[in-house]
Amino acid sequence: MKEINELNLPENLKYSKDHEWVGVEGDVATIGINDYAQDQLGEVVFVEVPEVGDTFDAEDEFGTVESVKAVSELYCPIAGEVVAINEDLEDAPELVNESPYEKGWIMKIKVADASELDNLMDKAAYFEMLKG
Amino acid sequence: MPFELMDLGLVDYEKALDLQQQYVTQKKNKALETDMILMLEHPAVFTLGKRGGRENLMVSEDFLKEQKVPVVQTGRGGNITFHGPGQLVVYPIMDLDRAGMGVADFVHLLEEIMIQMAGDVGVTARRSSANHGIWVENRKLGSIGLSITRGISFHGLALNANVDLTPFSWVNPCGLSGVSMTSLENELQQKSPKGSISMPVVKESFVRHFTRAIKST
Known about the structure:
The complex is a heterodimer. Chain A has 4 helices and 9 strands. Chain A starts with 13 loop residues before the first strand and ends with a helix. The longest helix of chain A is centred in the last third of the chain and has 9 residues. Chain A has a single domain, classed as CATH 2.40.50.100. Chain A has a 6-stranded antiparallel beta sheet with strand order 1-2-3-9-8-5. Chain B is an alpha/beta fold. Chain B has 6 helices and 10 strands. In chain B, strands 1, 2, 6, 7, 8, 9 and 10 form a 7-stranded mixed beta sheet that branches. In chain B, helix 4 crosses helix 6. The radius of gyration of chain B is 17 Å and the shape is globular. Chain B starts with a strand and ends with a helix. Classes of the chains: A alpha+beta, B alpha/beta. At the A-B interface, helix 1, strand 6 and strand 7 of A face helix 4 and strand 8 of B. Strand 7 of chain A pairs parallel with strand 8 of chain B.
C-alpha cells in the first residue's frame, strides 16, 4: 500500500469523496478511479462498465470494479449521459492499476449541469480528506 | 466506533446473505450506527464469486446433488469456494468510510487477525505475495472475499478450523490450481495424531483479536 504522500494525484483533475477522478474538456467529463482507489483495491481483475446512452445522477452507481480483494461499486461524481466507455478494460482491466488517469479511464459523460463540478474537490482538498 | 459481535451458530448461506443485506441497507440509510460482526458456520455449500467460477468445479452437478451440496451464486469478489461446518465464517458489516479504512487496510486487518488466530493454537500462517488469503506453506487456511457498497463492507472471511476438507478437492479452490487446502486441525495433526481444535475456542480467539484490532485503528 502507498503512503498518502506517495499518491499520484494530478493537479488538473477533480476528485470525489468516493475516490473517482473527473477530467473536463468542454462539456465532456472523463471519469476513472484515482491512484488511492486502485492501490487500495489491488490487482483489478474485472471492470463492469455502463452502456453508451445510460444516464446517471450524481452519486448513482454506474459500475463495479472487482479486484483480487473485493468487489467495489463505482459512483458517478456528477450527472450526465454516457458518451463513451473504455472498451480496452474488457480485455485489460489491469490498465486501471497501471495507468489510472490515462489508459485506465472508465467512461466519458456529457455533463448535465456544470455547476455540479463545484461540489468536487481539487487535489489539495482531496488530499486533506484522505489525511482525515 | 460501536460494534456488536453476534454468534449465529449454523446458518444457511442464503439466510445469512439476507441478514447481511438487511444490515447493509439499514447502515446505508443511517438507521443503524452499530457495525454488525456476524460469526457463523454454514451447512455444506459451494459459492461462486460475482463472475462465477463454475469452470473450476471438478465434479458433476449430479454428484453434488447426491452429496446434497448446493451451488449458490454470490456477488462477492473471488472465485468458487466451499463452506461447511467446522469453518468459521465472519461477515463484518462495517462502515469503512467512517473507520477511515480503505479496502486494502481492511483486508490487511482481517488477514492479520487470521494469522494471530492460527498462532494462538501453534500454527504458523502467513500472507502470500502471489495469492491472497492466509497460508501454511502452500496450503490455504483462510480466505477473504468482500463486497463494498457505499463504504459498507459485507461478505467476509472464512477460516478452516476442523472442517471436512474433502469437498475442497472437488474444485480448484479460488480458481488456483496446484494448491491444497488445510485446516487448523489438519495442521495440528501433522504434529500429533491426536491434535484437535474446537469451534468455541476459535470463536473466542476471533473475538479477542478482532476487538483489539478495531480498538487500535
